[in-house]
Design a protein that fits this description.
Number of helices: 18
Distance between the termini: 63 Å
Largest sheet: 2 strands, antiparallel
Mean pLDDT: 76
Order of helices and strands: HHHHHEEHHHHHHHHHHHHH
Helix content: 55-70%
Low-confidence stretches: 96-101, 115-190, 441-449
Radius of gyration: 26 Å
Amino acid sequence: MWLYALWGLAGAAANRALIYLEASRRATSRPWQYPYGPGGDAYAVSVLLHCAIGAAAAWGAERTGVVSTIPLGVAVGIAAPVVLKKLAGYVVALLGSAGEQRSFGRRLLIALADAATAFRPAARQPGAAQRVEPTVDDAFTGGETATAEPAAAVEDAPRRVAPPRLSGPGVNWSDIVPILAINSRGDEVAGSATGLTNLAGLLRDLGHPTDARPLYERALSIDETAHGPNHPAVATDLTSLAGVLRDLGRAAEAKPLYERALAIDETAHGRTHPTVASDLNNLANALRDLGDAAEAKQLYERALHITEACYGEHHPIVATGLNNLAGALLELDQPIKAERLYERAVRIAETSYGPDHPAVAAKLNNLAHALRGQGRPAEAKPLFERALAITEATYGPTHRIVAIGLNNLANALRDLGQAAEARPLFERALSIEEANLAQPLHIRADAAR
């Protein structure tokens, strides 16, 4: 009689062991670790309850004659916790955002309800959705030196994710904006912060950072109320708000927000987590805005060390870190070191994406800037030409990035004394910019209310 209880216990334990192994494969830290797991105490109790349910169910099934063989007893032990999982899931859904988010009871319910899909991965895998707040990455620059402009950062899956940066032909803004505005309405609960953040991100993409800022501030207030001031969701909101402040040229105000986000994520994930690397890059970018390239260099180096350890030396995320560090080195008048990093970033991008990807174009552009800054425009010119060809093929001939590429190539030609060849490129770039500026899209932040 009791033998079946033991077999049921074994089945339930095997079920939980498989769940744990799968969660460990997707996570870079302990999969039960709060806030993305339920916490060690709640996790341990949930395992005990599931095993007890499995043992009791197998025992009861044998007593009533439902099962009569050991394999069936094990199968009952494996399947029985599903009922408890469903019940706990219903309770969590009914509670919603009510009550204390960190209480043991709520975390235990989450541990029980998420028994099969349990723990969110502690580090986003390559190719996953991008972070709400764009942070440092490669981009085209029309200036005299290569810089790292905002693009999407790598961030953990549990955080809200915004749609990728939207640009280029085929985007129907009149359809997208009302949907996001509707999603951002509602009561001041954590769920409504998602719509606010997504709409704010779209407004930034459309060149309306002033309108995006109050939406980010409102999302931050909602998440601080719902989760407390030190939750990773709050760190995401802080990073988003800091990003829009940088857009507005207010890096001094952005810096303490980035610092607070970094502190939260170091506490939540540990100092060597990929999320922390993203935060370090963000803070370093703000420091460069403030003219402190030396301090930024140290942060970029730490971030690069983390990403190389997490992803390997040939991962696209590492290429982004190389790009950022190279930009700081250029500002510190170390162009030879920067050139080597840019060359490595180009090789990684070409291997990862192929030779005609926009990421390759961005890195070619940065390498060309480094060469031009050393007085080597003849070597920079073919790189600018290749980058321009990629962006035209990707975005079409009238996109703003194409205008930047035209300006870059024209500047290299001018350095070579070929002003006649440079002039039509400058003129074409100017016409593209004027055409884009002539079609503004007016969206007010109060559309979200």
